[in-house]
Automatic annotation (TrEMBL):
One of its GO terms (cellular component) is nucleus. One of its GO terms (biological process) is ubiquitin recycling. Residues 7-83 form the U-box domain. Keywords: Repeat, WD repeat. The keyword Repeat applies. GO terms for molecular function: ubiquitin binding; ubiquitin-protein transferase activity. WD repeats lie at residues 177-199, 210-242, 294-336. This is WD40 repeat domain-containing protein. InterPro entries: Ubox_domain, WD40/YVTN_repeat-like_dom_sf, WD40_PAC1, WD40_repeat_CS, WD40_repeat_dom_sf, WD40_rpt, Znf_RING/FYVE/PHD. It comes from Chloropicon roscoffensis.
Length: 442
């Protein structure tokens, strides 16, 4: 068994190494718990900011053994990483796709077609840096490349910021990316309409930075008309933004952290939110009032999605390892699948529905992807290959729902379906993938 194979909870995994903690210690400056070796290395390198929040740690920095977490990990009876595993994770260099190569010869500029599809991911240059880089790949490059081939940096448009991105969505018509981060700021990025094809490509241009929440932004989504963006955070608030002026028009209150948001993309009639209060809330898009509440989960809801064909059902899941399908007509739970997260009832971190509504993909904490047939709600296939919990995934447009992209803390993988059998086609390996969201732009 490899470290973390049993799919331990996020609270038992060091946010720096992405491994189960052997010697957990609490950092007094931010209140978070880390692997002792990893946080000592962070401080030894002269960092005086929180690895998670980026806030100033102050002068009185102490490491306090977290005996409660150590005891809880011991009770799980999972195999712990060795010292060499921890040292390797702490010393692992950033992805080659960010750092390799010298600038090449200039080429003629070309305009990227509006119908091209792109894949977005946020990467961190190293484990000991707060810098996050938004990278963009052409979907054809990743989804049509040969298995195990390398990704070239030439087709990315990177931009770097001093913040850890937590969520990101694309606005296709305006050619923009909207991102939320742990510094509580909503950022809007503009994609170049044309770019010189050199080894030093054009950067994304930041057009807005909005201080909107009093704590981390956990999630966001964009409505079908791309007129509204909703953001949810650890301040238990949902904020509704006008994309024309980028002003906050509404603030909605919930009872706990908001972990996920999803719009109805058929009529833009509603959007849903899920969080640590175990509730799935339905909000009317016109009145911005709560219209319904679904209860049935027994732990935090981490992901949700709305049927893209008819918006007649909503999918939700989370830490209770339960997959729930709610009817928007009967207001009842039509399907409830216990233990959908795996044999140990691991968390389900993310989910996506194919454009034809026939397939659901779930990213599990036990490093797997699970594919479900929505007509009979039967498990189609489990996909193995990730080395950490799957944090986000999406079906890639333009490939007939036969291409899937997923990310964990260390790699981005593309999956391809041939004769109803899914397999990993391509891997971008990096110990620097920090963002758990990606989107497609058409």
């Amino acid at each position: 068994m490899t470290p973390n194979e049993a799919g331990v909870a996020d609270g038992f995994v060091c946010p720096i190494t992405c491994l189960t903690m052997v010697d957990p210690v609490m950092l007094t400056g931010d209140g978070h718990t880390y692997e002792r070796y990893a946080i000592e290395e962070w401080l030894r390198r002269g960092n005086r900011t929180s690895p998670l929040a980026g806030s100033d740690l102050g002068s009185n920095v102490q490491l306090v053994p977290n005996h409660a977490v150590r005891k809880a990990i011991a009770e799980l009876k999972v195999e712990l990483p060795s010292k060499s595993d921890i040292e390797e994770a702490c010393g692992h260099k950033a992805a080659d796709i960010l750092d390799k190569g010298e600038p090449g010869p200039s080429k003629t500029a070309r305009v990227y077609n509006e119908d091209e599809t792109y894949i977005f991911a946020s990467l961190r240059r190293s484990l000991y840096s707060l810098d996050a880089t938004v990278c963009v790949w052409k979907a054809k490059q990743l989804c049509l490349s040969k298995a195990n081939s390398c990704t070239s940096v030439d087709s990315t448009w990177p931009n770097t910021m001093k913040a850890q991105i937590t969520c990101m969505k694309a606005c296709g018509r305006s050619r923009a990316i909207v991102s939320g981060s742990r510094d509580n700021i909503l950022r809007v990025w503009e994609l170049p309409s044309s770019v010189e094809e050199t080894a030093s490509p054009a950067h994304l241009r930041e057009v807005a930075a909005l201080q909107c929440h009093s704590d981390w932004i956990n999630c966001l989504d964009v409505n079908c008309a791309e007129e509204v963006v909703v953001t949810g955070g650890r301040d238990s608030r949902i904020r509704v933004w006008d994309t024309l002026k980028w002003t906050c028009n509404h603030t909605l209150r919930t009872d706990d952290y908001v972990n996920c948001l999803a719009f109805d993309r058929v009529k833009d009639g509603f959007f849903v939110s899920g969080g640590n209060d175990w509730k799935l809330l339905v909000w009317d898009s016109k009145t911005m009032q709560q219209s319904h509440e679904f209860s049935g989960h027994t732990y935090a809801i981490k992901c949700c999605a709305v049927d893209p064909v008819s918006a007649s059902w909503i999918l939700s899941s989370g830490d209770d390892s339960k997959l729930c399908v709610w009817s928007t007509k009967s207001k009842n739970c039509e399907v409830e699948i216990e233990g959908a997260g795996g044999g140990y009832n691991e968390s389900i971190n993310c989910c996506a529905i194919s454009s034809d509504g026939r397939t659901v993909a779930c990213g599990l904490a036990n490093h797997r992807l699970a594919l479900w047939d929505t007509r009979m709600w039967k498990l189609l296939q489990n996909l193995d290959g990730h080395k950490a919990g799957v944090e986000d995934l999406c079906f890639v447009r333009g490939f007939g729902d036969k291409k899937l992209v997923s990310v964990d803390g260390r790699s981005l993988k593309t999956w391809s379906c041939s004769s109803n059998d899914w397999s990993c086609q391509h891997t971008v390996s990096a110990n620097a993938i920090a963002c758990c969201e990606m989107s497609t732009l058409v």
